[in-house]
Amino acid sequence: MMDKQSLHMIRNLMFRLLPIQVMLAALGAVNGIVSSYFASNYISVEAMTAVGLYGPVSMLLGAIGAMLSGGCAVICGKYLGMNQQEKLRHIFSMDMLVSTAVGLLFAGVFVFSGVFDFAGLFTRDPLIRPIFTRYLLGQAVGVVPMLLTAQLTPFLSIENKGNRATAAGILYIIANFVFSFLFIQVLHLQEFGLALASSLGLWVLFLAEAQYFTTKKAMFRFSFHGISWNELIPVIVVGFPGAAGYMYMTVRGLAVNNLLEQYTGAAGISAFAAANNLLNFFWAIPSGMQAVSRMLFSVHVGEEDRRSLTDIMRVMFLYFIPLMLVIDLAVIVLARPLAYLFYKDTASDVFSMTAQCFRILPLCMPFSIVIMHFTCYGQASGKQGFVNFLALMDGAVCVILFSFLLAPVLGIRGVCLANVLNGITLNLLILGYAWIHQKHIPRTMDELMVIPEKFGVPEKDRIDISVRTADEVVTLAERIQHFCQEKGIDEKRSYMAGLCMEEMDGNVVEHGFTKDQKDHTADIRVVYKDNKIILRIKDDCIPFDPKTRYSLLEDQDAEKNIGIRMVYSMTDDIVYQNLLGMNVLTITI
Fold this sequence. Notes:
The longest helix is centred in the N-terminal third of the chain and has 40 residues. Helix 8 packs antiparallel against helix 9. The chain is α+β, with helices and mostly antiparallel strands. It folds into 2 domains: 413 residues, no CATH class; 128 residues, Histidine kinase-like ATPase, C-terminal domain (Heat Shock Protein 90). The chain has a 5-stranded antiparallel beta sheet with strand order 1-2-3-5-4, sandwiched between helices.
């Protein structure tokens, strides 16, 4: 039966992390909105077409960034769950070095392509080709910071430095707008200035985020010493499904642009690009949800915590999707005012097509949230085959197939509907995958997620308890002591286990729960493994490391804080971590 207190804590944690992740995901969208606004209002519709043509190239860069950042996030999450922090620093250095090298390579390719006019690979229109060439040259300046910032974002989340990420994001938005106004309105650099403004804004964002990692407070700091080159292949393997999705979307973008050019002309490409660039701001919400869940899935797979894994998915169904439906409805209702942001002539074809995009495309977002979550869980749990299959179907096959069938008949509406049908199809595939594995329609969240029966510690060898009041602490020691004795643990260790947990959890309830006016939960887990008792307390209170307090007490009156002293004197090992703002204390007896 679902533990409502555990679900409550997971829900609160996810919604606490969500705003920062949404803001970080929205940065690229804001860049697109600013570019689209200046291109459509102050340059020309053709400049907006150049922005649309660059979309697949941006997807390719996003694919590489997603592969490295996604793979690092999943693997680092597992190491956090296993308390192996030294490996985190080695992965960080490797990630930064590889991202820089790849960024320099692509910047060189962009410059080469711009100088030698390879724009013909993207469009046959002789009017658009020189415009796109100039735009590509400006984008070359921002490739390196784009890839590096994609890597720093999850590491800032692990460091629990959301405020710095927020400040850097606000600075980026301001810089992007100021540079766009300067280069376009004042210096009249047109398409080159449009792209250059975006690129320089990315440098501002990168420097603002990177500064923290040069301080002594940072857990992650770059060093050539100890770089984990042996972790590069696992990072690529784990992150590849996310990268593959972007790569497939690159192919999809080229195919869709071709269909739009064929059946709706340049106006269709401009409308689709404008709508997508603004909708990317709203897509930041599912992307933020995905980032939060990916981190938590990784940590809880490392901890082999079955209940928390299912709770994450329940929060997605019970809270994330209803929230997204409300936002989507608002976008659909405001379709015409949103289209007016880009095109002032309400009688034009490009305005009408942009409004149609705003009315249809938001409908695919709730379906995509489900796909994103099952992809994140699959990456963390090693279901690489199914995740790669989902990426292929979601990224290219379904949208291209439905667009090919519907675009000749419905024009741009057909392309938009293809995205919705894609989401429905992928959700049915997820259900079918679970049905095939379970040999019946899944009845529980465990069955829908296809969590292996052997995953984690068997239920008979663990107990999970959620504590919210001091009264619940009173019975804790007796329950843990009884569990230990059932497992054949001697009377002394059984008593010590119960007493340790009662002391430490009582300390959390007495002090942590009363530091603010918020409701808190302490999630208790007791595991019997290899003839050892492993006790874990996880709470959502302010950061508190008992080891630091114990060190401060060593030279003080022995009667002070006797509970902490006693626990440290009778346990084999105590490890404290602050994971994503949660206190996690693991005690081995």
